[in-house]
Design brief:
The chain is an alpha+beta fold. It has one domain (4-166): Gcn5-related N-acetyltransferase (GNAT) (Aminopeptidase), CATH 3.40.630. It contains four helices and seven strands; from the N terminus they run βααβββαβαββ. It has helices spanning 10-25, 39-50, 98-112, 127-135; strands spanning 4-7, 55-60, 63-72, 82-89, 117-124, 139-150, 153-163. It has a seven-stranded mixed sheet, with helices on both faces. α1 crosses α2 (39-50).
């Protein structure tokens, strides 16, 4: 049975997201956080990020089994068309296509919001995550060497990038990104907005 991706609800989904995320923080170099955020912290993150970018969860048999979200790439204004993306799947539900399903839904929503570029940072080595990103069209653009100390060693982080929409001709800026509230779900037309 396929998981169903839907927008996250901070009150309803925060505890499940925190539980899914915990193993990636504790005893793992996947996340550079050193303490697992509590459910209240996760609720605040979901609410803050969902104001500008999608945060999705995957449900299977009524239980949240994964989440994916976009976030601002950097604070400077010229970066506003780029989004960082992340996906986490419950350890018991990995290798079932849930991460791909979440990412496909997330990328569709980012396109609908007019984001141009998706960026993914991956702590190396991580063959599964690299494989997922590259299967979706992400390309390696660089590696930060020894950028973080986690789980007893210096860690490299590779950066992958995916062009979401074709660039405009003539040197004109693209349309401004839309807030999630102005986008009608994962529509077949990524430029479709509320009327």
């Amino acid at each position: 049975m396929r998981a169903m991706a839907r927008p996250a609800d901070p009150a309803r989904d925060a505890a499940a997201c925190a539980a899914i995320y915990a193993p990636f923080v504790n005893g793992s170099a996947v996340s550079f956080e050193e303490a697992v955020p509590c459910a209240d912290d996760f609720a605040a993150r979901i609410a803050r990020i969902a104001a500008t970018h999608p945060w999705l969860v995957a449900e299977r048999d009524g239980r949240v089994v994964g989440f994916a979200y976009g976030a601002p790439h950097r604070e400077r204004a010229a970066y506003r068309w780029a989004a960082d993306v992340s996906v986490y799947v419950d350890l018991a539900n990995q290798r079932r296509g849930i991460g791909r399903e979440l990412y496909e839904a997330l990328l569709d929503r980012l396109r609908a919001q007019r984001f141009q570029i998706a960026c993914a940072g991956i702590t190396l080595p991580n063959e599964a995550s690299v494989g997922l990103h590259e299967s979706l069209g992400f390309q390696l653009v660089g590696i930060y060497r020894d950028i973080g100390w986690k789980a007893g060693a210096w860690r490299d982080v590779g950066w992958w990038q995916l062009r979401l929409l074709p660039p405009l001709d003539g040197g004109n800026p693209p349309p401004e990104p839309l807030p999630p509230a102005d986008v009608i779900g994962p529509a077949s037309d990524p430029y479709r907005t509320k009327r």
